[in-house]
Structures are given as structure tokens and as C-alpha cells.
Amino acid sequence: MEASRQDEYREFVAMRSTALLRLAVLLTGGDRHAAEDLLQIALMKAYGRWARIEQPEAYVRQIMYRQQVNRWRLRRHHAEVTVPVLPESGNEEGAGADLELRVALWAALGRLSKRQRAVVVLRYFEDLPEAEVAALLGCPVGTVRSTAHRSLTKLRALVPDLDPGGSGEQQLPLGYTAKEMQA
Questions:
Q1: How far is residue 151's CA from residue 27's CA, in Å, rounded to a whole number?
Q2: Would you tell me how many other CB atoms lie within 10 Å of the CB of residue 96?
Q3: Taking all residues of the chain, what is their mean pLDDT, rounded to a whole number?
Q4: Using CB atoms within 10 A of its CB, is residue 44 exposed (0-12), middle (13-18) or buried (19+)?
């Protein structure tokens, strides 16, 4: 690879690796080590095709989605249960209840099936349209819709505080944005 392309790649990695790692953590259900591996594989694959990539971030994200789906398909039964690590900075005033809810949501995400977690992450954390989620996961749009519905129903059952009004709306619980959940 020529020097200018290498510099461009290094700059991309320096600028976007934190956001991409957050996505990887969500996709792996909170397992930071698996997330780092997932991101490393995606960046390595992108490096080999860097000169031909038009939208680098979209390309790396798609590699990560597909790589994680392949991991789920290859793994039959995994006895190990991953638990997300609590953030160290939780001492802010008024953050206690939000932190407890966020921890409960992380734990509930870990209890979803792999497909359900992928749909929730792609649809609500990444804010992708149903058609794009379906294309990434290789399933019909109707499957994405029904999986999202069942996933949100299960999340609300596992963490009742997510839907205090009982509205049952199909949105990210409590109006959290991806940025707020990743903090």
C-alpha cells in the first residue's frame, strides 16, 4: 500500500476506533475482549482492501456485523456467561438511578438471543432502517420487525422500569440514544 493510503488508514483508525469499539461491545453483549477481537479482525480485513473502499466506516461496520453473525452461527452452545463491566465514574449527582437502569438494561441485553441482540443493536442503537438490518443479517424485513417486537417485549419484561407508562411503543427504551447508552 502506498504511503498516502497508509496515512489515511492510520488517521481513520485513530479517529473512529473508539466509536467502532463501542459498537463491537454492543454486538458482543458487553464482552470487551471479544469486542476488541471483533474490531481488530474488521480493521485487518479493511486494511487489505483499503485502496478500493469508498465509505470506510460503513465498510468496517458491515464487516463487524457479518463477522459477529458468523461467530454466532459457528458457536453451538457457549456455557460462559459474559457480564458487562460497570463504569468507574458513577458518582455524579442524580446518576444513581440512571446507572442502575443502564446496568439492568445491559444485563437484559445479555439475556436476549443472539439474533434478538443483533436486531436491537442494529435497529435501535445504530438507528439503521429495517431494510438495512435485514440485508446485513441476511433475513427478510418481516423477520427483523417480528424479532424487534419480541426483543423489546422481552427487554420490558426483564426490566419493567424501561416502559414506565406501559405504552409498549417500539422505540429505544426510555428514549435513550446510542450515545447515552454507550457512555
A1: 15
A2: 11
A3: 79
A4: exposed
